[in-house]
Each structure stands twice: as C-alpha cells, then as structure tokens.
Amino acid sequence: MIEQYLVENFLYSNCEKVKRNGGGYVMRCPVCGDSKRNPNKRRCHIDYYAKYDEWVYTCYNGGCPVPSGNIQSLYAHVMGVSWKEANDELTEKKYDSEKIKAKLDKKPVFIDEIDQQGTLDLDLNDCLCLNQKPDGRIQERYYAHLKKFYISRWIPTRHNIMVAHSGKYKNRFIIPVYEDGEMIYFQGRAMNNDIEPKYFNPDVIKENIVLNRELFDPEKYIIVTEGLIDAYMVEYNQGTSCIGASVSDEFIEKLLSLSKKGIIIALDNPETDESGYNNYRKIIEQSKHARRLDYFYMPYIEYKDLNDLRINNKDIHIYNFIVEKSISHFKASIMLKNII
C-alpha cells in the first residue's frame, strides 16, 4: 500500500486546488485541465479502495481523455515518468512527512461557526478509519468489521466512515457529513441488529446540514435520499440526504438554489417501507414546492433503497437510472394513491 501522506504530499505539491474530501481528495484534473468555464471547479477525485488496497483517481469532467486510473498512472502523467518509475518513487521517495501527517491527524470536534448549532460529542481517539493501523487485537477485530462494511455495501472510501471501538459510540459505525473538510454531522449506526437503537446520533439541529453542498454540479440534478449511505451511492456527488428527517420546504429551497437542473426525490421504497411512503406523501401533498420537484419510485419491490439497488446491481449507474426513471408530481401523486 502507498502511504496516504505520500499521496497527499504529491497532490498538494503538484496539482491545483487540492482539498480533503472525507478520506480522499478533490482537485482540478491535471489530465484534462478540468472545467474551462469555472476555474474553481474540482472534478477529479482521489479515493482509497480497501478492496483493492489501491489509491484511484476519477475525473468527472466530460471528455477527459483518461478519466480514471490508479495514483501511479496519475503520478506518471503529471511528472512525465513511466508507470514503474512512478510506482518506485511513490513507494520509496522520501518526503518531509511530519507536516503532512500533522494535517492528517486533525480531529474536528465542533460544527463550523457558520452553522453553529450544537457540539459533535465524538472523540476520534475512540474511532478507527481505513487508513489507520489498528493497535492490538481488539482494534484489529473492529477494523475487520469496518472493512467488511465498506466492501459489502459498496461504499466509496472517500466518505471516511469510521468504527467506534470505545467511548460513547462504541460498537457503532460513524457515518459522517463533511463540509469544506470539516465534520459537521455524523450518524452512529449499530454494527449489528442486536444493538439498540439502530442509530445513535449527536443532538444537533439537522435542518442546515446539506451533504455534498460544496460538491454539487449545478448543471446536474440533485438526488434526495433518506439515508446517508443511499446518498453515497449516487455518482458525481449529486446525492444528498434528509438524514432520516422529513424533507422540509426550507431544505428544498436550499437545494433549489444549488441546481439549475432540478431536484429528484428518491426516498425509501414506498411499496414496502412505511417511512418512505409517509415521507413521499408529506412532500407530494403538503410541500409548497411539490410541483417543482421530480420523483423516483423504486421500480423493484425487493429493494428497499438505493444501497440495496447498488449491492444487487453492481454495474448500474445510479444517477442515470434515477434521472431516466423519474416522474412528474402529477404522475407521482397518482401512483402513490394506488399504493396500498
């Protein structure tokens, strides 16, 4: 494995507008030059895939000649060397690592001052993430559960889900929301079905929290899901979540200001999930913005949500699938009335 501080030092030293994004990075693509219209657009993502033990880059700028590859390929392109030389240098080259490691060890605790609304009572010393080395057998067992969780649910590692091995949130996966590199919220999800409640979350106001707010492409639809992991399934970082709460008009207004294309509501399957049905009904019948929205109903009764859809259809492009299957408010209201 190529150490993260080596990857980070390479990116910050040689690429433009690099910033942390969960456990990975976003930056302007050095292969295609990224957006020509917007010099601040960052469409290149760097993520660590635990399943393959590899750092991978993906460019979401249409027309990029080499839109994806491993970090060695990107290094070779930027530095003008062969893949073998890139691999040798990334694994052997000596960097001033102390400064980089200090950045990686930052542990945000408080919600940012812009949306000050509570305290994230999470001690990150109680947690493990994939790019940390477990300390002892107990932590190794937790690490194994975390790795299995990522792989079984097909979660991109850039979202930096952790597992709490001690403390207040012990035996829970920590599913975070980041904004500008800072953690502003998280859900504590039980590691197994024997732990109650399923979710144990910090006591903060959630209405101002918009997952992926700073990453949305205004030329694409924003997809609204119930769960954070469902939102993680949507390509281009166009998924966001109501975080288990109802979709309020204030939340919709925030999203409408962030997309020129529109908003698609893609909650849990209303055919099989009572919460999904009730949330759809509340939006369709009560929201003053209901007619400005599009809706996606899960077309397969056996799948509860987008994560189920991803797990059982590995090659599906979730964003495109939702856009193609989305329907108007009029049609959505008729279909909902026919659900018993």
Describe the structure.
The structure is a single chain. This protein is an alpha+beta fold. The protein folds into three domains: 4-104, Zinc finger, CHC2-typedomain (DNA Primase, Chain A, Alpha-Beta Complex); 119-190, no CATH class; 222-337, Dna Topoisomerase Vi A Subunit, Chain: A, domain 2 (3-Layer(aba) Sandwich). The protein has eleven helices and 13 strands. The chain has helices at residues 4-14, 71-79, 83-92, 97-104, 137-153, 228-232, 249-256, 274-286, 306-312, 318-325, 329-337, and strands at 19-21, 24-27, 44-49, 54-59, 68-70, 127-128, 162-164, 172-179, 182-190, 222-225, 239-241, 263-265, 294-295. The longest helix is centred in the middle third of the chain and has 17 residues, at 137-153. The radius of gyration is 21 Å and the shape is globular.
Domains (count): 3
Give the CA-based shape.
Answer: globular
Report the order of strands and helices. Answer: HEEEEEHHHEHEEEEHEHEHEHHH
N- and C-termini, Cα separation: 52 Å
> On the 0-100 scale, what is the average pLDDT?
86
Major β-sheet profile: 5 strands, antiparallel
CATH level-3 fold name of the largest domain: Dna Topoisomerase Vi A Subunit, Chain: A, domain 2
Count of strand segments: 13
User: Strand arrangement, largest sheet?
Assistant: 1-2-3-4-5
Estimate what percentage of residues fall within beta strands: 15-25%
Name the structural class.
alpha+beta
Q: CATH architecture of the largest domain, please?
A: 3-Layer(aba) Sandwich
* Percentage of residues assigned to helices: 25-40%
Low-confidence stretches: 103-117
Radius of gyration: 21 Å
How many helical elements? 11
CATH class of the largest domain: Alpha Beta
